[in-house]
Structure prediction request, 198 residues.
Amino acid sequence: MPCVHPTAIVEDGVSIGEGTSIWDNAHLRGPSRIGRDGIIGEKTYIAYGVMIGDYVKINAQVYICTGITIEDRVMISAGVIFTNDRYPRAFSDDQLGLAPSGPTEDTLCTIVRTGATIGAGAVVGPGLEIGRYAMVGMGAVVTRSVPAHGLVFGNPASLHGWVCVCGQPLGRMPSCGRCGRGYTLIDSSSGPTLSLCD
Prediction:
């Protein structure tokens, strides 16, 4: 059974996997899917249509809007904000009053791949991919997709190196000094990426 704090708001249509804990004052909108054996921290907001995998740790006060997919074993640190619209307005030119809050043709989807970490206070722009086992530094403003194993930080975030599956920065070494995994740097048409050697 999942463990849901009595002050959490879990709307109809939210699926929560076995062993997941939902902490105080979190708000989960339905329909959405939360995987097994994860943590949703206090005062976190998860919009409808969000898909979250297994073994995901989401800390306190995280904002996850519609259009976000988070794969397995991801760490989302405190205060992270996701966005899904590049040119947001409160109003619509062809309507009086407020623009609709639901997804529109301008809504852009973002995916956080398996094993990635997003540091505290980072802001993730719309329509991006955070690659497998990538690490986004605290306070980063992510405006471009991050390659697998990429280490990015700054405003705007830029690539500063590579990290191992275990989280250790790799520096210039082809293997990890902590766990011994070996890697190959691959140049592709979309830019450099790191690949784990078999």
The chain has a mean pLDDT of 94. The CA atoms of residues 74 and 115 lie 5 Å apart. The radius of gyration is 18 Å. The chain is about 0% helix and 35% strand.
